[in-house]
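Entry for the shared binder. Reason: the reviewer on the internal report wants the predicted structure included alongside the sequence.
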Amino acid sequence: TDHNYELKLKYKFQELLNFNVENEHSVSFYADALNISPRHFTRQIKKITGMSAKQMIQKKIIDVAKERLLNSELDIAQIAYGLGFTNSPQFARIFKSDTGLTPSEFRKSIDKTS
């Protein structure tokens, strides 16, 4: 049943992330939503996925951002605000640390290939 619990936890976390990533970036929000302590939650997610809960949240933010950069005409500030960032430089920094490109460089690199 331990494996079952882990699968359920991972699935529920991913589901919560899909619905809340635009507004909620804190590990404690997701832990609370799953009725477990942030410390236990962090430990379990790391054990199950090999990534920290924070890394998974950040990965989801980046995935949604990439999708919006590719498939929308929204400017970068709009994408940043839409993902719950109060300023686009903060968003751009996180995006670049993950992808190696700024959001505008990412968008340009995609435009060239199409």
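Summary line for the report: Residues 2-20 form the longest helix (19 residues).
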